[in-house]
Amino acid sequence: MKKTYKFDEKKAQKAVKLLLEAFGEDLDREGVKRTPERVAEFYKEALSGNEIDPLKIVKAHYETEDHEEIVLVKDIPFYSLCEHHLLPFFGKAHIAYIPNKDKIVGVSKLIRLVEVFANRLQLQERLTKQIADTVMKAASPQGVMVVLEAEHLCMTMRGVKKPGSQMVTSAMRGAFMNDVRTRSEAMSLLKNS
Q: Using CA atoms, how far apart are residues 144 and 125, in angstroms rounded to an integer?
């Protein structure tokens, strides 16, 4: 049975109050009086993907046009939260797929899919895989390729402290995994502006 998530705003507010107290903050100070409410609102929005079934978003549209060539949507901006440090990571997602006959996926659906999975506590590697697997399951394409490029604030603000470092992950399924020429063509399209 799949676990359902329900954000508890009151518990989040209490947790933020405890955190502020642990930091030694005065909860009556003007700048932090409403911080527990604001932070809870932020996390409710930032984690809203937990309450959405991604398979309901990506549905193949049956078109009269037979298109069995690469479809690439690139430079999709995304923001997510690292589950290890609760710090943001952000960047661009690129999704390529090859439809089967007349099963075309709406471009906005692919963008929305990135948003749904990014709006969860995440690891970039998992996020990449989830997008690819969902497109394969929902649209049954000949193949799908997902590439994510992101900067992680857990590497920028703490630890190694290297701003601008990018992590790149990819997931290949079907034709992109099995055919070097298809993968090369998609990567070439991705690199060209």
A: 16
Burial of 57 (0-12, 13-18, 19+ CB in 10 A): buried
pLDDT, tens digit, for every residue of 144-179? Answer: 999 999 999 999 998 888 899 999 999 999 999 999
* C-alpha to C-alpha distance for 139 and 191, rounded to whole angstroms: 25
**Rounded CA separation 105/94 (Å):** 15
Dump pLDDT digits (tens) for 8-49.
999 999 999 999 999 999 999 999 999 999 999 999 999 999
| Helix/strand/coil for 128 | helix
The two structure tokens encoding residue 87: 């710090």
Please tell me the predicted confidence (pLDDT) of residue 3. 66
pLDDT in tens, 53-89: 999 998 767 666 778 899 999 999 999 999 999 999 9
In terms of Cα–Cα distance, which of 113, 115, 53, 51 is closest to 80? Answer: 115
Q: Distance from CA of residue 112 to its chain's centroid?
A: 9
The full DSSP string for 3-56 is: PP----HHHHHHHHHHHHHHTT--TTSGGGTTHHHHHHHHHHHHTGGGGS-GGG
Q: Rounded to an integer, what distance in angstroms lies between the CA atom of residue 152 and that of residue 160?
A: 11
Closest to 87 in 3D by CA, of 43, 117, 52, 22: 43
